[in-house]
Amino acid sequence: MIKPLPLRKQSLLNLHLWNSGIILGSVxxxxxxxxxxxxxxxxxxxxxxxxxVWVVTWSVKRTTLQGTMAGICxxxxxxxxxxxxxxxxxxxxxxxxxxxxxxxxxxLQEDFISIALIVFAMALMVEATAAIQFGLGGTHRLEDVxxxxxxxxxxxxxxxxxxxxxxxxxxxxxxxxxxxxLGIE
Amino acid sequence: xxxxxxxxxxxxxxLILTVLCLGGAWAFSRSQGVGVLEIFRFVSSPxxxxxxxQKRLVDAQTxxxxxxxxxxxxxxxxxxxxLDQDSIKNKQAIAAAILGRxxxxxxxxxxxxxxxxxxxxxxxxxxxxxGLVGRVTTVSQQTSRVLLISDPTTRIGVSVxxxxxxxxxxxxxxxxxxxxxxxxDPDVKVGDTIVTSPLSRLFPPGLLIGRVKSLKLEQNYxxxxxxxxxxxxxxxxxxxxxxxxxxxxxxxxxSSQSASVE
Lengths: 185, 262
Fold this sequence. Notes:
The complex is a heterodimer of chains A (about 180) and B (about 260).
Chain A: H1 9-35, H2 50-59, H3 64-81, H4 89-105, H5 112-137, H6 142-182
Chain B: H1 2-30, H2 34-44, H3 49-82, E1 93-101, E2 109-112, E3 125-128, E4 131-139, E5 144-148, E6 155-160, E7 166-171, E8 176-181, E9 193-196, E10 208-216, E11 224-229, E12 238-242, H4 250-261
Antiparallel strand pairs in B: 1-2, 1-12, 2-5, 3-4, 3-12, 4-5, 6-7, 6-9, 7-8, 8-11, 9-10, 10-11
């Protein structure tokens, strides 16, 4: 347990600065990690979807609107890192929306197993959204898209859920502490 | 009015922050991720020193082979000058280390640590020991992004070296790809070498692509073959990029072809 610290006026600004720094820094780190393929993080040439894990971590204790906005932002960032046609905002915004909703209904507890399960399901959904977009886009043949979806969706989901705690644990710890310092539960 | 004022008082910060985040992310996506790539290059630059060391070791043999090629090319050029064909270009290339790979599972891309300042342009041809790798799609100051030939959106005109039959190459997001032929009964066998066609507008002619692995000639519409790519793209650590446009203008190629037919 972290004891609530006595909070003075000038330290409030500091706290907000730290929070925004951590948010921006973690997003930057996740975007860079998307480009890397480290030996333990690859399954048949596919790495974990770090931006998806970030969106789930962000949305799991926030409202649907906040989740959707984060999804759109990170989707735009991923567009910048790959190609913007078709867009990644759709899948990640859906992830933010659905994870935000899960929270309000209290289907699941917030521990590593349930976070991993959420990430697994959301990764499958992101891949499915991308597959539908590519299928409707006309640049790829439908059977190729279906084949690629079957090859990649499962390994992406497994890897993302396996590595999800790496992002979830520190960020969740920080936000719990941040909210306790601000007096919000 | 008071209600609106209260609402604004309460949600002001959230609203402004949301607009800022969305605006920032949009600008980022418009700029093709240039900022993050530059930061990434800066952070990972100490890690890439061993790559240059390895490159130096390979350089000795490469240099010897390059000298032989240069010698052969200069002789070839004199012969072609005798035949009144002066389409030979300056084949200058630079080596670049691979910083990263594609940031999702649907695009087959690479990020390199050389960019505009080193003279790389959009559409520059990228190759590695073994043959063709891809084409540059975006460049920033010191990084560039390459679309690989294994990407499903890549379509290249190719030819079989043995029989000169022409076909269309298409990536399959793996180490194999498909070639569709125009003729009903093309002369192609397992083990045949596939190179870029002399009619290709995007790639220089004669760059090695791969080897024929299996035949699917009983296809209904057009005969197809499966090709194994000659470059192990998944294991590459550095590639070479042509600094100057290597493609020959189509009209020139066609005229020289028709001239040879005549």
